[in-house]
Amino acid sequence: MSKIFLYTTLLFAAFLLVVFVVACSNGSRNIQQDKKVEITKYVYQHGDRSVAPDYHRSYSIEVSADTTVFTISTYGKVLLRKTYSQNKLAEIEAALNGMDIKLKKEKKSACSGGYSESLQKYSQSEIVFNGYVYHCDEESGTLHVGNGDLSSVFKAVIPESVDSLINETMLI
């Protein structure tokens, strides 16, 4: 075997290795971050701690182009549903862009008694982002929120006081 053939083969192998490394590093990026999709709806859900039904209040806030729907429930039973004719998508988007929100590898917790939050982003009827966090002794789940408070962002688009609405359902 000639030295030229050996050097050419080694050079070709090195070239293939570089191509492979570049291809793998480009392929490992989060596709959801790379593709630009129009978000048509946000859904924020707050799951209350495990307490008696008389005191348990979970709620969800769905924000779309023409409406905001606020729902309060206790263990699946809807106590209050209000629909507001408003477009708050841009407001939500601006607030969330200022927060470091991303998905992380799921972390499980053996703790019980905490509350949960989840966030879904939709493009038409397709979910393009779906994460949750469970607040107990420590945070577990798939959702990382680096700065800010999700509940405050979503509560701000409800024209009435969310806490007052929750308190009103306690009398039912």
Query: What's the gyration radius in Å?
Result: 23 Å
* Residue-averaged pLDDT: 84
Largest sheet: 8 strands, antiparallel
Report the end-to-end length measured between terminal Cα atoms.
Answer: 90 Å
- The proportion of strand residues reads 35-45%
Q: How helix-rich are the residues, as a percent range?
A: 25-40%
Low-confidence runs of at least 5 consecutive residues: 11-34
What's the number of helices? 5
In one word, what is the shape? globular
How would you explain this protein's 3D organization?
This protein is α+β, with helices and mostly antiparallel strands and 172 residues long. The chain is built from 5 helices and 8 strands. An 8-stranded antiparallel β-sheet has the order 4-3-2-1-6-7-8-5. Strand 3 and strand 4 form a beta hairpin. The chain is globular, with a radius of gyration of 23 Å. The termini are far apart. About 14% of the residues have low confidence.
Spell out the key features of this protein.
eight-stranded antiparallel β-sheet; 30% helix; 172 residues; 5 helices; globular; alpha+beta
